[in-house]
Write a structure and sequence with these properties.
- It is a single chain.
- The protein has 5 helices and 5 strands.
- It is 58% helix and 18% strand.
- With 99 residues, it is an alpha+beta fold.
- It is globular, with a radius of gyration of 14 Å.
- It has a 3-stranded antiparallel beta sheet. Strands 1-2 form a two-stranded antiparallel ribbon.
- Strand 1 and strand 2 form a beta hairpin.
- The protein has a single domain, classed as Orthogonal Bundle (Arc Repressor Mutant, subunit A), CATH 1.10.10.
- The relative contact order is 0.15.
């Protein structure tokens, strides 16, 4: 089955991505990463004022659902948004939340 040129598998992947994003702290993380810079877990948890383990948990979920990239450099792992188009979704969420 194909709906608007997306297969069922692609629709399932999109739904899983949206479910992964649908958490206040994950939206906050995506807002912080939206500028395109790679950031470490330390930078993220300090900016958001949450525990390192909580931050790592949220990052892991978003990485698993193909929302984030991670690159290991020495002792640090750097996270960034995997798809540039997600910035449009993040902007939309921010705009709609302010209405």
């Amino acid at each position: 089955m194909v709906i608007n040129e997306l297969t069922i598998e692609q629709l399932e992947k999109a739904a899983n991505m949206l479910r992964a994003i649908a958490h206040p702290m994950r939206i906050a993380i995506l807002n912080f990463l939206e500028d395109g810079k790679k950031r470490t877990v330390t930078e993220i948890y300090k900016k958001l004022g949450i525990e390192q383990s909580t931050t790592s948990h949220h990052l892991g979920i978003m990485k698993d659902k193909s929302i984030l990239n991670s690159i290991r450099e020495g002792k640090n792992t750097y996270y960034s948004i995997k798809h540039n188009k997600l910035s449009t979704l993040i902007d939309c969420i921010n705009t709609c939340a302010c209405d």
